Description:
By secondary structure, the chain is mainly beta. It is built from 3 helices and 11 strands. It has one domain (about 40-220).
Amino acid sequence: MSTRTAAVQPTTAVQPTTTDDVPTVTDVPARAPWSAVLPAGSHLTITDLHGNQAVDFLVYDAHDHAVRYSAPDTLQAQGGIFLTTGSVLMSGEHTPLMTVVADTCGRHDTIGGACSKESNTLRYGHHTWSQHACVDNFLAEGARYGLGKRDLVSNVNWYMNVPVEEDGTLGIVDGISAPGLEVTLRAETDVLVLVSNCPQINNPCNGFDPTPVRMTVTPAPTADGAGR
Length: 228
């Protein structure tokens, strides 16, 4: 098992709202954060470049950050705990924020949460305190938009495999993803997306070896089918 604790690298770019007719592609390094403001109708594709890499994810209304992803509303609306094609990410006001329109992995987690220094030390020992965590990424990236710790809620974990056992306990086990698998979401309103390319090395969610992922932002189609 890897025990390396290399410092987080900055993302190669943070993509703002775009009106270009071509997709914007950003490779997010292992352990790094990423964010984007996406206009309604645009698409975000998250590609697991090397396989078995968890991608922690939060989404907010771009104009009112108090309107944000709600795990309870999302699970209640779809009647299940796993996300796949057709799943709608709902806000606490029970309004749609983003919809999964394509998914080649098949199942994504909504209940495993984000790793933090506190949870790492509780689960894996105090020697892990110095290790970077998803909460660190969310706080650093969210601060650019005026978000703080009170604005963090239960998040989506794309590609993370968290089965529910017969006795109701949860497991964090080897992923079901593979290199090149993708999940694509459509923005149902203007949204702010925060991503932590998970740095966890103490459980199998990243195969004990965090790797880069790719973010592709595609503009909303116009009436003639082209990007707007």
